[in-house]
Design brief:
Order of helices and strands: HEEEEEEEH
Number of helices: 2
CATH topology: SH3 type barrels
Number of domains: 1
Shape: globular
Low-confidence stretches: none
Number of strands: 7
CATH architecture: Roll
Oligomer: single chain
Helix content: 10-25%
CATH class: Mainly Beta
Mean pLDDT: 83
Structural class: alpha+beta
Largest sheet: 7 strands, antiparallel
Radius of gyration: 16 Å
């Protein structure tokens, strides 16, 4: 699939000029301009290069960690299924990104506390895998010797 980096670059200039999104909070779901990215990095769609994302952690009014969301079903350990507005979605924990709140377009709603807590715990376990360990998604212990 051909990626339109030039079109995204023009849109990115507009996004950069935006003011920060007001009132961004943890657990909220927003339409966010993720842009056109490299390789397997998750892309946005449509004219604004957007996709839904969940605010995983707010550091300040300008900077947050976001979990991108997809509507494509994935039965993998780091795709967390959740229902929102009577539709099934999957939070893509392997694609967590630090983003400027300038990318935030429209608030959709909020994830229930219990489901969000599960996402946090799964992400923390994934992020804390030791150097010589492999995550459950990788099939357990590594066979490769440490350098």
């Amino acid at each position: 699939m051909e990626k339109d980096f030039d079109k995204w670059n023009e849109k990115k200039k507009q996004v950069h000029e935006n003011r920060d999104a007001p009132g961004v909070h943890q657990r909220e779901v927003w339409w966010i301009s993720f842009g056109v990215n490299i390789g397997v990095e998750i892309d946005g769609k449509n004219d604004t290069f957007e996709r839904p994302g969940i605010v995983l952690r707010k550091f300040n009014n300008d900077m947050v960690w976001v979990i991108p969301v997809t509507s494509r079903e994935k039965q993998l350990p780091f795709y967390i299924q959740f229902a929102f507005a009577e539709t099934e979605y999957w939070a893509v924990l392997t694609q967590v990104r630090m983003l400027s709140t300038k990318r935030f377009l429209r608030k959709i709603g909020m994830i229930p506390k219990e489901r969000f807590s599960e996402m946090q715990k799964t992400f923390a376990n994934f992020a804390l895998v030791q150097e010589n360990e492999r995550s459950p998604a990788q099939g357990g212990a590594s066979r490769r010797p440490k350098p």
